[in-house]
Amino acid sequence: MIRPRICREPLDIAVLFGGVSSEREISLMSGLAVAGALELAGHNVAGFDPAEVELTALNWRQFDACFIALHGGAGEDGRVQTILEALGVPYTGSDPLASRVAMSKLATKKRLHACDIATPAAVAVSARTNLLDLTRLVRPLGFPIVIKPDNQGCSLGVAVAHCPDELPDCLTEARRYGTSLLAERFIAGREMTVTIVDRELLPVLEIEHSGQLFDFEAKYDSQDTVVRAADADDPAVVAAAQAALAAVEAIDTRGLVRVDVMVDEHQQAWVLELNTVPGMTHRSLAPRAASLAGWDMAQLCDRLVRGCLASHEVVA
Q1: Is 13 helix (H, G, I), strand (E, B) or coil?
Q2: Phi and psi torsions of 83, nearest 5°
Q3: Contact 168/40 with Cβ under 8 angstroms?
Q4: Residue 29: exposed, middle, or buried by beta-carbon count in 10 A (0-12, 13-18, 19+)?
């Protein structure tokens, strides 16, 4: 096992970004933003793209920690975390098990259900499921239905079917991003995202957009998407925050996590999913929440690295 050297100031930090998942382009932007922020915080930074270098071939002895800015795929499903643990390298974010559970929307739902945390009803669907069987499977959920890939972020491949006739197009879209899919009951209401750092709740953000879903276009391309700080005393916001905190406890995440929540007209908060490696671009939601808490990007990234070093010392 490779043991990182004793930490001194400034820290030497490796940033992983890019990768081979469908979220590569966003990861590249996140990685550049993180590297710049860590340099601004006074650290020495080296960036690596796992699509171009073999992680086990790197000289990890020269680094104090690794900042994971890999979205989707191996960077978010526990595989990269497993490699770094085997090498004894402190890394930001959740451990392999929590990463693997959070990356699968179906596994997340199973854990949330077991902990009595509200999440929309859903059924597993295969990319090979024919239309007749799909219609039969989703009928108990009622329309509208959300069809989405099980292991995919950035809302890629997500679509809403308002009636059975719209299921084929939704299935086609979801199939572009995976073979394991799910059909989920659509929840109408207020859309919120809750950012948490090591169980510390940051200001809740409420999202307003013109479409039915906060999809990839709404997140990164739309000019009419509005993201604002939610009123902390609003009962709906309190419900969203409580549900998010319960969810991260249930999955046992670590470091920075973003939880997407819908709150319906009855003030019931429904946890949609957890993101254990949230975006870190200038338009990303977690840095916006941190900014409202008074942390700039340099402070946020510095805190995440120091948090992972503290966790590594406790485990070691």
Answers
A1: strand
A2: -65, -45
A3: no
A4: buried
Encoded amino acid at 187, one letter: I
> Where do the structural domains in the chain lie, given as residue ranges?
12-92+296-304, 101-118+188-276, 122-185
CATH 3.20.20.70 fits 12-92+296-304, yes or no: no
pLDDT, residue 131, reads 85
Q: Is the dihedral angle over the CA atoms 315, 43, 77, 151 positive or is it negative? A: positive
What does the alpha-carbon distance between residue 261 and residue 192 come to, in Å, rounded to a whole number?
5
What is the residue type of 71? H
Strands 12-16 and 65-68, how do they pair?
A: parallel
Residues in the chain: 316
Q: What is the CATH number of domain 122-185?
A: 3.30.1490.20
Residues 6+ apart with CB under 8 A from 92: 65, 66, 67, 68, 255, 256, 304, 305, 307, 308
- The CATH number of the domain covering residues in 101-118+188-276: 3.30.470.20
Q: What is the mean pLDDT of each run of 10 residues along the chain (316 residues)?
A: 55 96 93 98 97 95 97 94 96 97 96 98 89 90 93 79 92 86 94 96 89 53 80 97 98 97 97 96 94 96 96 65
For the chain, the distance separating the N- and C-terminal CA atoms, rounded to the nearest angstrom, is: 13
Sequence-separated (6 or more) residues with CB below 8 Å from residue 294: none
Per-residue confidence (pLDDT) for residue 157, from 0 to 100: 82
In degrees rounded to 5, what are phi and psi of residue 105?
-65, -35
Distance CA 236, CA 121 (A): 20
Question: CB 119: neighbour CB atoms within 10 A?
Answer: 24
User: Distance between CA atoms of 274 and 4, rounded to whole angstroms?
Assistant: 30
Q: How far apart are CA 215 and CA 222, in angstroms?
A: 10
Q: What angle do CA 261, 224, 285 make, to 5 degrees?
A: 40
Q: What are phi and psi of 148, to 5 degrees?
A: -150, 155
Phi and psi, residue 126, nearest 5°: -95, 150
